[in-house]
Amino acid sequence: MTYLTKRLNVLKSRCPEFKQDLLEEYYLQKVSLRIIKMRLELGLSQKEMAAALGMLESQYCRLEKGQHNPTVLSMIEIADVFGYDFEIKIKKEKNRNSFF
Q1: How many CB atoms lie within 10 A of CB 6?
Q2: Comparing C-alpha atoms, which of 56, 37, 57, 49 is closest to residue 81?
Q3: How far apart are CA 66 and CA 84, in angstroms?
Q4: Do 56 and 63 form a contact (C-beta atoms < 8 A)?
Q5: What confidence tens digit (pLDDT) does each residue in 16-72 have?
Q6: What angle do CA 53, 58, 59 make, to 5 degrees?
Q7: For residues 28 and 66, is the Cβ–Cβ distance under 8 A?
Q8: 57-64 and 46-53 helices cross at what angle (nearest 10)?
Q9: pTM (2 decimals)?
Q10: What CA–CA distance (Å, rounded) separates 6 from 43?
Q11: How far apart are CA 97 and CA 6, in angstroms?
Q12: Distance (Å, rounded) from C-alpha 17 to C-alpha 33?
């Protein structure tokens, strides 16, 4: 058992919600990184991206920081505005439970 696995087990025992909180944070950050990548591919600043989406710059920044949980419909709208396709993949992951 690795040091990280031991530490995760300790945190899980102290805080039963830890696993769920960690997964939520992981997926919010994953969405955030994809939004940032899209903005950089488009060559836009945060201010320009926010304006194109009809958002305040502060709202958009929260999205990039992973501090906002966008709905599926808002993600579809963001993708559509910039000519991107939006898809959701739900698949069985290998070894997922070994981490927790």
Answers
A1: 10
A2: 49
A3: 20
A4: no
A5: 788 888 889 999 999 999 999 999 999 999 999 999 999 999 999 999 999 999 999
A6: 50
A7: yes
A8: 110
A9: 0.78
A10: 42
A11: 14
A12: 24
Q: What's the one-letter identity of residue 47?
A: K
Structure tokens at 39: 């903005």
| pLDDT-derived band at 96, boundaries 50, 70, 90 | low
Q: Which amino acid is it at 46?
A: Q
Q: Which two tokens stand for residue 67?
A: 């501090």
Tokens 């439970």, located at residue: 97
Amino acid at 68: H
Which residue in the block uniquely carries the two structure tokens 């989406």?
53
For tokens 């929260």, name the residue: 62
What is the torsion angle, in degrees rounded to the nearest 10, for the CA atoms of residue 31, residue 34, residue 38 and residue 39?
Answer: 70
Token pair in block for residue 72: 């599926």
Token code pair at residue 7: 């530490």
